[in-house]
Amino acid sequence: MTDSPRHSLDPADWPGLRAQGHRMLDDMFDHLETLRERPVWQPIPDAVRGAFSEPLPKAPTDLAAAHARFMTQVLPYAVGNAHPRFMGWVHGGGTAQGMLAEMLAAGLNANLGGRDQMPLEVERQIVRWMRELFGFPDAANGVFVTGSSTANLIGLLVARTRVLGAGSRATGIGAEGQRLTAYAAASAHGCVAQAMAMAGLGSAALRTVPVDGRHRMDVAALSSLIAADRHSGLRPFFVVGTAGTVDVGAVDDLAAIAAIAQREQVWFHVDGALGALGMLAPDVAPLLAGIERADSIALDFHKWGQVPYDAGFVLVRDGAHQLDTFASPAAYLARHPRGLAAGSPWPCDLGPDLSRGFRALKTWFTIVAHGTEQLGAAISHTCALARHLKHRVETTPALELLAPVALNIVCFRYRCADADRVNAEIVADLHESGIAVPSTTTVNGRTAIRAAIVNHRTQASDIDALVDAVLACGAARTGPSRPGATP
Ligand SMILES: *Cc1c(COP(=O)(O)O)cnc(C)c1O
Predict the structure, then answer these.
(1) What are the structural domains of the chain?
(2) What is the dihedral of CA 428, 430, 433, 437, to 10 degrees?
(3) pLDDT tens string 395-411
(4) E strand or H helix at 268, and its extent?
(5) What is the DSSP string of 45-63?
(6) CA distances for 274 relative to 88, 416, 461, angstroms
């Protein structure tokens, strides 16, 4: 057989590809530089949506033509979380530097499941930095995952293995698993209940701890629930404290939960998806006191850390438990003292993924390009903007604050009759206007307009634009002429 380079997918015309690549890069720089001039979001026209229902192509398409389709059919109709007036849900804004790092990672096409490679040292550098940030010991280990939904699941699985023993990986959770109970506040993220379901323990075995007036876990109720379960012969094993609840941004009293977990000998996991990186901000870090006592922490670099999606991470105080949970002796993954199969343990020993991308690179670039002071200042600024929004709400008679503001999330609403329905309509009106994108949530049974200010690009004028637009939409929906009112 002779060489036949025509089976390679490399370009036949490298100079042409280079020129096209530079155009693509420039288009994204232009996009990021002029974000503010465009709508945050716009509805997807039917023709555009329909353009992605074509048959599987047999023949190649010119890269420039594919790129033109991206520019006209994909880019304008994304969620818009890079935009400074995106405040919906909890989404990070990303950075241009992070985008460039993604390109480098894709060019390298590194697979970070394991083996002796420098990309893994980059990931281990992040693990070391996270140990330092959270005051964890050298025995702590960690691993990048998609997001905190998976990071919380990993925390739970490690705790489950610790309490049932590594043998349970072979035998299953058995009758003992039926007796395990876990605890999280009513305000905890839904992925915790989902993790209980996926771990085979059942979401019903997750006890819902009531919250206090500040939407924080009622720690006295936590103690009572644990005592009641023990009394019934159950086995409490896992408690989740949340550092920044997804609905209102409340921070559970992590030190109090740590003390109870220690006394009760249950695993203390912190869901820090939103808030854990507040440790980078000197004015936010004190609110997280107690996080350094966690057995495991889930966090998202793609939220407050501004790393492009996706970049979730889990840190486990005693890395040996993580190995007990995930490491397995497959012949094709055998380690060797030298050569490329050296350098154990590998990330595939620390979580469920074998093939995994180089999420650590965009995280490393983001951290070194800005330094922790700049990243921390951006986090503080989002909290200052939230206080500014809170002030605007409190000083505007047509608006009402629905929850205390602890971090960077503000829940409020337009005062009117039928307010639940009208406020949901106001939010949809805002989305369609392209002016600003908040989302909705329910606070104490009432529909709230929720502004989660995560993006480093957001400024005070963006908050003012949101308030003005809410007032305008509210007046339009409730005023005498009611234009746009739905029948
Ligand atoms: C976002 C979030 C999650 C889920 O994290 P993903 O990265 O979206 O998987 C879990 N908990 C809290 C508190 C969150 O804010």
Answers:
(1) 111-357 (3.40.640.10), 371-478 (3.90.1150.170)
(2) -100
(3) 999 999 999 999 999 99
(4) strand 267-272
(5) PHHHHHTT-PPPP-S---H
(6) 13, 32, 24
Ligand 1 center from residue 325 Cα (angstroms): 22
Our measurement of the distance from residue 163's CA atom to the centroid of its chain's CA atoms, rounded to an integer in Å, reads 28
Q: How buried is residue 70: exposed, middle or buried, by Cβ count under 10 Å (0-12/13-18/19+)?
A: exposed
Q: From atom 2 of ligand 1, which residue's Cα is the shortest distance away?
A: 273
For the stretch 42-84, pLDDT in tens is: 999 999 999 999 999 999 999 999 999 999 999 999 999 999 9
CA of 305 to the centre of ligand 1 (A): 13
Question: What is the pLDDT, as a whole number, of residue 330?
Answer: 85
Q: In this structure, which amino acid lies at residue 328?
A: S
Rounded distance between C-alpha atoms, residue 19 and residue 31, angstroms:
18
Atom of ligand 1 at shortest range from CA of 242: 13
452 Cα–ligand 1 center, Å = 13
What pTM was computed for the model? 0.96
- DSSP E strands in 293-354: the ranges are 296-300, 312-316
DSSP 217: B
CA 97 to chain centre: 19
User: What SS3 class is residue 344?
Assistant: coil
C-alpha angle 185-173-210 in degrees, rounded to nearest 5: 10
Say which residues have a Cβ less than 8 Å from residue 41's Cβ, sequence separation at least 6: 77, 78, 79, 80, 86, 431, 434, 437
Q: What is the DSSP letter of 199?
A: T
Question: Which of 81, 144, 189, 439 to mutate to test ligand 1, by most ligand atoms within 8 A of the CB atom?
Answer: 189
SS3 of 226-259: HHHHHHCCCEEEEEEEEECCCCCCCECCHHHHHH
